[in-house]
Design a protein that fits this description.
Layout: E1 5-10, H1 14-25, E2 31-37, H2 44-49, E3 54-56, H3 59-63, E4 69-72, H4 79-89, E5 93-97, H5 104-117, E6 121-124, H6 131-142, E7 148-154, H7 187-190, H8 192-203, E8 208-214, E9 224-231, E10 241-247, E11 257-263, E12 266-271, H9 276-281, E13 299-304, E14 310-315, H10 323-335, H11 345-364, E15 368-369
Parallel strand pairs: 1-2, 1-4, 2-3, 4-5, 5-6, 7-10
Antiparallel strand pairs: 7-11, 8-9, 8-15, 9-10, 11-12, 12-13, 13-14
Helix pairs in contact: 4-5, 5-11, 8-11
Family: Belongs to the Gfo/Idh/MocA family.
Domain Gfo/Idh/MocA-like oxidoreductase N-terminal: 5-123
Organism: Sporothrix stenoceras
């Protein structure tokens, strides 16, 4: 195995603490985090990562160092300019938090720039390795439920208060970027990039798209959304496929719903969020149970029997593993081969286009139609 890849992480917010730092530390044969960029130099990086990591205040310091991969975990709207600057310098590969950008043409530009510079551009679509999503993917591949006619995925919370700031608090009178409509693209980018990405991976590009975005907390950020996708009938049925991806930040339910699927031979219902985020917080990333789910949280399939009756069957949740997205990034960097990444930039661009059409639909109050609008 080649030497561990010297890596820098940009940003000291939630993504550093809960995701990138614990995941990268769990793969010491692949990555060595040597540098953290903390613009405010408020001591957040040192407190989390210790004295063995160099903390710098500027992107130039990172680019001019000996790091090989730069993980971009800054505010979502900043990704485009930062990644463009890194690639134009021509030294480092980039691994970006999702969304890669808020605009598909910008993502296309970054994809082309990475190719021109001979560098790897990876995107952190870690929820392709959610255990519940992998379970649904398996149910679909095995045709256990028959042809899917209705698919709903939820990513709901109950968060009536302002966002909890992690990292250095903004100066007095300065609004945190997640509470600023001019900087925050809203829930459809924050979490829709995960759920709509899963929709795209399962079903591809839809024939029609309808979107609705709104603010439930009244600060102007469109923090909640409904996105509807219409597809042709799947093999084995004449019924068109109707897909819904939704997030509501004022959902007073316990447990929160996660998936509801109706198909020609049965259905599937699942509650609870994938546990990996919380397991990373608990320091369990290298434990034997990481990525597994408690039996009492498994979903239920209702299967239609030959006599027309129903039979419920508990479906074990597949084991998830967010580490895989980083394992593949390491292999891609070592081989200088972007095909090693399951998450291709081209697929994330398609998801951004779906989001763009959902937002346009919300503005215009109509269905967006393939071949006409996109």
């Amino acid at each position: 195995m080649p030497a561990p890849i010297k890596t820098a992480i940009l940003g000291t917010g939630i993504a550093l603490n809960h995701l990138h730092w614990p995941l990268l530390r769990s793969l010491p044969d692949m990555f060595e985090v040597t540098t953290i960029m903390e613009r405010k130099m408020a001591g957040v990086a040192k407190a989390l990562c210790g004295d063995g990591v160099k903390v710098v205040a500027t992107l130039d310091e990172v680019i001019n160092s000996d790091v090989e991969v730069i993980v971009v975990a800054t505010s979502d709207g900043s990704h485009y300019e930062i990644i463009k600057k890194i690639f134009n310098a021509g030294k480092q590969h980039v691994f970006s938090e999702k969304p890669l950008t808020y605009h598909s043409p910008q993502s296309e530009e970054l994809e082309a720039l990475a190719k021109a510079k001979g560098k790897i551009l990876g995107v952190f679509q870690c929820r392709r390795w959610d255990g519940d999503y992998l379970t649904i993917k398996k149910l679909k591949e095995e045709n256990k439920l028959g042809a899917i006619t209705n698919y709903e995925v939820f990513y709901d919370f109950y968060r009536p208060a302002d966002v909890a700031v992690e990292g250095a608090a903004p100066p007095e009178g300065v609004v945190h970027w997640k509470d600023d409509p001019s900087q925050n693209g809203g829930g459809i980018y924050a979490v829709g990039t995960h759920t709509i990405d899963q929709v795209y991976c399962l079903f591809g590009i839809p024939d029609k798209i309808l979107g609705r975005v709104w603010s439930v907390r009244g600060n102007g950020v469109q923090d909640s959304f409904d996105a509807y996708f219409m597809y042709p009938p799947q093999p084995g049925t004449h019924i068109p496929l109707f897909v819904r991806a939704t997030t509501n930040l004022m959902s007073p339910l316990e447990p929160q719903p996660k998936f509801m699927i109706r198909a020609t031979k049965g259905g599937y219902v699942k509650h609870y969020e994938d546990d990996q985020w919380f397991a990373l917080d608990r320091g369990e990333v290298n434990s034997d149970t990481y990525g597994t789910e408690l039996k009492e949280r498994w979903g239920t399939a209702t299967l239609v029997q030959p006599d027309g009756s129903f039979k419920n069957e508990i479906i074990p949740t597949e084991r998830g593993d967010y580490r895989q997205v980083y394992r593949e990034m390491a292999e891609a960097v070592w081989a200088n081969d972007p095909s090693k990444n399951t998450v291709q930039v081209s697929s994330t661009i398609q998801v951004t286009r779906m989001i763009e059409q959902a937002l346009k639909s919300s503005q215009e109050g109509r269905w967006m139609v393939k071949g006409k609008d996109y």
